[in-house]
Amino acid sequence: MTSASYEIIMNMRVPEGYIETGRFFIGTDKETACEMFARLQGTPALTGTAMLRMDLVAQEEGIATVIQTLGCTLCEVSENMKTIMKETFKMLNLNS
């Protein structure tokens, strides 16, 4: 059995649905990934109407499973990207 890896995927709404516009590797620890995602700004997106969406995704054996989704404004996405970069830097460089 392989362990899952976690990513935050940025999506933008287009007439055909959503397209991926960015992807951040968050690591292999589910608790850490969920804690980071909980710090992000946005509204839980349930209807598919958000223009910008961030998904916390588990990747395991080639299968992607969306764990949580946030609908975001452009300002929220900007702040979220800062948070993701800051937390990823700390995780990769300071927690060794």
Give a written overview of the molecule.
- The two termini are 25 Å apart.
- The chain has a five-stranded antiparallel beta sheet with strand order 2-1-4-5-3.
- The chain has one domain.
- The protein has helices spanning 30-38, 74-93, and strands spanning 5-14, 17-27, 43-44, 52-60, 63-72.
- Helix content is 30%, strand content 44%.
- By secondary structure, the protein is α+β, with helices and mostly antiparallel strands.
- The chain contains two helices and five strands, in the order E-E-H-E-E-E-H.
At a glance:
The protein has helices at residues 30-38, 74-93; strands spanning 5-14, 17-27, 43-44, 52-60, 63-72. It is an alpha+beta fold and 96 residues long. It has a five-stranded antiparallel β-sheet.
Element pattern in H and E: EEHEEEH
Radius of gyration: 13 Å
Helix content: 25-40%
- The shape, in one word, is globular
Instruction: Name the poorly predicted regions.
Output: none
CA-to-CA gap between the ends?
A: 25 Å
Q: Structural class, from secondary structure content?
A: alpha+beta
**Count of all domains:** 1
| Annotation field: number of helices | 2
| Strand residue percentage | 35-45%
Number of strands: 5
Summarize the main sheet.
Answer: 5 strands, antiparallel
Biggest sheet: strands side by side, in what order?
2-1-4-5-3
Mean pLDDT over all positions: 92
